[in-house]
Batch of 2 targets.
Target 1
Amino acid sequence: MKNTILICRCEDITQEDIEQAIDEGYTTLEELKCRLRLGMGPCQGRSCLSLARRILCQKTGKKPSEIDFPSTRPPLIPVKIGTLVCDMHGRIRKKG
Amino acid sequence: MAELEKKADVVIIGGGINGCSLAYQLAQREIKVIVCERSYLGAGATGRCGAGIRQQWSTKENTQLAIQSVKIFEQLEQELGCNIGLRQGGYLIAIHTEHEMSQAKKNLLMQKSLGLDVSLLSPEEMKEIVPLLDTKGMKAIGATFCPTDGHADPFKTTHAYAQAALRYGAHIYKFTDVLGFHKEKNILTQVLTNKGTIATSIVVNAAGAWSPCLADLAGIQLPNKPYRKEILVTERIQPLFQAMVISFKDGIYFSQQDEGQILGGIPISHEKAGYATVPTYDFLQHMSTTLARYAPALQFVNIIRQWTGYYDVTPDARPILGEVTGLKGFLQCNGFSGHGFMLSPMVTKMLADYIVDGKVHPILKKLTIERFKGKHLHKEVAVVG
């Protein structure tokens, strides 16, 4: 059975998944993101990346300040495609 | 991290899909190979790409490379013993004008002559493949469709190749920067890195968008230029379609990934060559508008992330492979112009055959840097994104 300590709720990733990936040699948050899809869901890593950083520190002996966070990507919150649709003059449509 | 090996038969610069897959092929054939990656594996274009695998091209060489690559992709999970997330849902290429139609028919004939299963569809047939499409809104008069095109997961595929390479004894050094080269006359002898020096007689430049900079360090000029390309992804939604939809006229491509998210990109106007990485609002707006025109139902789906990567673009949009004149042992594996992931299996096989047995594949011969000396370039026109 999967270890039930859930770290990334959006992508369903557990502490065990993260520890396993670190053992495979993925020792940065950016690599864990690529390997596991950690932080790639709708919340964009708001809660899981700090937790994953703590696991990385415990397993690698690094200090939190030595571990970089992946780039924050826009948009900051999810936006509907319809909200961004514009007319031929680049004006946003009133109703999406 | 283990100490840097002092000597190797081959040093590959760049730990993207091409670097890792070449390392695997060479290690498997008992060549001592080292990969130097400046960042983590797949940090460049590989990990940022649209993940598509397409065999429908306008040049014969690209079509052949792609057909052979798909054959390798199809049995790769078995070969590497690792999941690569391959799904063959086909590529649907929209046709908008009579001019595009005649080019499509020309391509189709060439592709069929090479044995590819590809057909011409009416707007009604397009909707059977991707029911979401508004063929009137997208102004399509038809499409070509190849059912064995598809996509694979670039992270999983790179991981699978790297793990297999390590099993065969390859050395992969991440976060290792190449600073320069030593040469004796016109022969490469050493690679200098921030972790130490490696003696070797063969270096493969698989550094993607940074290939020209590396070549510069070796005193070789490459014509490649980096272009920022943007891409976005939505939240996960229920499975709606399997095919990748693309249009050469609008430059758009989009598909639904295995996990359910819609992934796609489109070029924005006035894009200049250079190492810009900032994602733009212009892209977000242009992509949303075009996507909503192509598939109106998608306007209710949330975009959750946008990012950028580089196309490593050559003057004819085709890769630069193999030896260069002026520096023996300095091999190129770059200039993929946005198609490095999908062509990698066959490209690296040809390069491995050349390095190990000295065999020069007819396509390899056509894609060396020498072609730019001629006046007439045979340009690949089937490019999106």
Target 2
Amino acid sequence: MSNKDPILELRGVSKSFGAVQALYQVDFHVAPGQVMALVGDNGAGKSTLIKSIAGIHTIDEGDIVFEGEPVTIHGPKDAGKLGIEVVYQDLALCDNLDVVQNMFLGREETSKLRRLDETTMERRASDTLATLSVTTIRSVRQTVAGLSGGQRQSVAVAKAVMWNSKVVILDEPTAALGVAQTRQVLDLVKRLGEQGLAVVLISHNLHDIFEVADTITVLRLGQNVAEYKTTDVTQTQVVEAITAGALSKVPGHVEAEVTT
Amino acid sequence: MSGTTAPVDTSDAAPVGVPSGGEGDSLGAYARRWWAGVRSGELGSLPIIVGLLLIAIIFQSQNDRFLTAGNFVNLIVQMAAITIIGMGIVFVLLLGEIDLSVGYVSGVAGVTAALLLIPDGAHQFSAGPAIAIALLAGVAIGTFHGLLITKIGIPSFIVTLAGLLAWNGVVLLLIGDKGTVIIQNSIVIGFANDFLPDATAWVVLILGIALYAGILLVGFRSRRKAGLPTEPMSLMALRIGGLAAAGIVVVAVANQDRGIPYVFLVITALYILWTYVLNRTRFGRHIYAVGGNTEAARRAGINVDNVKIACFAICSMMAALGGIVLASRLRSIDTNSGGGSILLYSIAAAVIGGTSLFGGRGHMKSAVLGALVIGSIDNGLGLLGLSSGTKFVVTGAVLLLAVAVDSISRKGRASSGRA
């Protein structure tokens, strides 16, 4: 697929919640500088997968390999230390805090007397936004409540990439956005790839995916059903894989032997 | 976009000292932005200042003793306890929680301190240890509340409602058959009944102004060094001048009478401490985050439970301190300690001052300004010789008015996209 080695790789990852098998033998990998789209219908296991990577769920079996080393991730802080950042669908920004305060939330810089180092934080926040060419935010001291959907998404993404992160996972970043704002966010996603980050993009919008993604991994009912290079495939083929991709194990048929 | 149509946000949320306008903005530009903010619902402390002016005018016209030096000193002492307890309330309100137990927690602390000070020879404590034990009791109570709320998941309303009953019971149990305990310790009594020598008050004021000016200047220089937008020097001069003018008036007026009560120093010190904690430390930032969006705070790796427990502990500790101040003012404790209007006045102070009940918005100054409003009304109606009934009705109406102003201004913010 990519000429580079994957930075994040999942091998045979399974996860069940009681009787529900949410993920079954999922493989997936993403390389630096690559935008990988993760697609699948509702209930395909996309959210479970990213929550497993973020350390919110623990996996039942399989390996998570980061930079060639198997790792265990026990929580968002572990993931952050490795350089994996997740931007959640519901944003996880505090409306009552300003842009700088949100970007540094939980990782504030302090100087002597445990005093918050506002000057350094404001400088770094402005620089990060500038690096990502986010120019629509007029003041980094505005509260997030006053920002548009696209601006908020930009802040959430900037927050994720500020920490020397290597892998950024975006959960439906354009779901609630208008045309112009979607444009902003897609441009931002492209820039992340160009800057050498590995990007995992979860989206229902195939048009967006074909515009920014290098590869597409399709999940169906908790299993990998297909993996494509964006250039080698049409939207129709991807839709077919999402809705009718061949499964190696049919849910409900415990001993089912399905050959493809 | 011009500065007047899209003002820099000066909302109540976790403020930083300097709103970032463009570099080299003039004082006029700041004033225009501030006014545009007011019009779109960022009222700040404006309604309270207007309210206080109205209160002063109304009461002074009814009774010319209202605006006298003696009454001013009385007012400081009268409002001290609810100011201190209200400061604690701000912490839990910022989380979007409530503490209904502060009245009787203050009672428990007041009674504890008073009992430890009874000169009966056997186990009499001196003032320091007695106060420390009473404060620790407050911390322990708050931690206990916090643990029940976070670890078991009982709503704070219920936990502290149970606390309201139970700590009232503890007050009665502690006092037993003593009825009223007179406090004889001169240090404890001195809190609310002794006054700073005139010269000392001036020295303290000058030190305070110098400190404030120093903080502003250091902040200004570090921002300029980092190439960040700074506020104009003239605005800074205005801030310092404003504080100096207010301080000079307070000290001059109080010195005409008995002077500045020691408890005023205590309140000022607490105000500076907690403002620093809320605005300039990670812990403070995390309080605003938890109150604004608990889930976001959790995902940012903040230990939400610990933040909440700490806030409830601070709230109860401040209640305990308020209880000691109250006992000091009355020179005694009795079975009514912590009862009456203390609880509701303290919560009302924080809310009238502009701290939102829904969490994430508010300042330490809310407690002080709100307590000033409530204290003035209470004091003024007292001077007019009106009954407690009238006082409660009027204070209730003011509380309602304050919350109404807040709700209307929030609608204004929402319609201008800054909810």
